Amino acid sequence: MDLLNTLVDKGLRRELPTRGEALAVLATSDDDVLDVVAAAGRVRRHWFGRRVKLNYLVNLKSGLCPEDCSYCSQRLGSTAGILKYTWLKPDEASRTAAAGLAGGAKRVCLVASGRGPTDRDVDRVSETIRAIKDQNEGVEVCACLGLLSDGQAERLREAGADAYNHNLNTSEAAYGDITTTHTYADRVDTVHKAHAAGLSACSGLIAGMGESDEDLVDVVFSLRELDPDSVPVNFLIPFEGTPLAKEWNLTPQRCLRILAMVRFVCPDVEVRIAGGREVHLRTLQPLALHLANSIFLGDYLTSEGQAGRADLEMIADAGFEVEGADEVTLPGHRAAAGGCGPSGGAGCGSHAGTGPGAHADAGCGSHGGGGICGTAAAPAAQEPRTDLVAVRRRGAGTDLAPNA
Length: 404
Description:
This protein is α/β, with parallel strands linked by helices. It has 14 helices and ten strands.
């Protein structure tokens, strides 16, 4: 298949695909999905071997967010029956993080609901970062606190944070359809602030919100331009009590095509399967490890994930191995650029080919004939699997042990 051969060659050279080529990946049929996975898997193994990085979420403050992001169970007006609590104390957060680290995680992601942190909130999180780092040598810590004000990223870096997460979520054109209380430009600005402070930037997307293929390609090309070290790919968890509760647009095959497209556009960055993999990939989760080199271990912010032990068994059974704390996540050319902790990295380096800004080649691109481009029908909506959406009732904010 000429398209896939072209994309593999470009991925091995870190060359940006055309917009048409990225769209063509999403348009492939279910009959071709194993060919797509095999091709993107070659790119993944070239840059990351068979290592899988484990990350662990700690929800420092849950619920009661003043923002109206339609996808979020913690949003303003949400009636989802999630845990709601104020800031965890540093020792509580550190104990929760320790469970994930004992399960094999090498990065702890500290998340708090809200528009963005106050200076007092930054002090709280800084204390938590120091507590985790003092008790766990070599651990990476990523903060995710919303929109940053001037100087806050620098303070988090001084406290020991290695990375900062702030997702773009969807394309600029579609952003106003999912959130009205802040803008796409606000999100881009926060990613720039993290970069400027010397933090490893982590920024990704949410698929399954009713977006078009063009929206998906737009946001991934925008992410490539922002040059994060890691790109989390979330699949919408349709919580009852949120505006997107009825959005069940994903199939396992569709999720694999999306992950493959992200890998082709961002060949040498940490592509992470984030929220929703259990809900939408389901029994095809092991195939996704051929595309992504990073996952979250255990539970998510407000929903339950697969059992931590099952995650580890899945990785081993699929022929992959958990990345060790002493191993460098990113390829040498990115790690050498000087990013966070053991994962290093300061971006995609110098990419051959055209930049991601211009949307030329809006069609299928030039595949030299043959190919698998273009005419696949839109995926049929699946029956809602509400049985797979389980609200988290353990771990942070409860008296029960976390899932790790």
